[in-house]
Amino acid sequence: MFMGEYNHTIDAKGRLIIPSKFRELLGTEFVVTKGLDGCLCVYPNEEWARIIESFRDLPMISKDARKLSRFFITGAAGCELDKQGRILIPQVQRDYADLQKDVVVAGVLNRVEIWSRERWQAENTYDDMDEVAEHMAELGLRI
Q1: What gap in Å lies between CA 134 and CA 105, rounded to an integer?
Q2: Is the dihedral of CA 55, 60, 62, 63 positive or negative?
Q3: DSSP 18-74
Q4: Which residues pair with 82 in a beta bridge?
């Protein structure tokens, strides 16, 4: 399980250091794709295979299924760690997530999310957590 929040910088070439705790779980090769809310999502290969199977099960007659599968699958790229524990994030992904310099690398259960620090702070205010918690309880979440 991935958890925790780390502040890092991305260099001019688009390289980002992956926190060592995450590297242990990701292995040396994994997938980075566009995520919802304007971040990037990093998945271990085994988890990515599970996600791909979920998409294969969707009826392609559904316009939403086609659109969502294009979003996640065409936005994906295989990544490898270099000797310094960095990955090279493709320019198209950096543009999508607005990754300039300061980033937040966050562990969220089965994935790692990569955010521009500015977008992370804007999206994750937590001012409405009581309302969110009530809604999640309706969906069956028990804390």
Answers
A1: 27
A2: positive
A3: PPHHHHHHH-SEEEEEE-GGG-EEEEEHHHHHHHHHHHHTS-TTSHHHHHHHHHHHH
A4: none
Amino acid of residue 87: I
Q: Which long-range contacts (CB under 8 A, 24 or more apart) does 72-75 make?
A: 72/33, 72/34, 73/33, 75/33, 75/34
For 20-67, write each residue's pLDDT tens digit.
999 999 999 999 999 999 999 999 999 999 999 999 999 989 999 999
**Contact indicator for 118, 107 with CB cutoff of 8 Å:** no
H or E stretch at 120: helix 117-123
Q: Whole-structure pTM over 0.85, yes or no?
A: yes
Q: Which two tokens stand for residue 107?
A: 């562990």
Of the candidates 33, 22, 30, which has an alpha carbon nearest to the alpha carbon of residue 90? 33
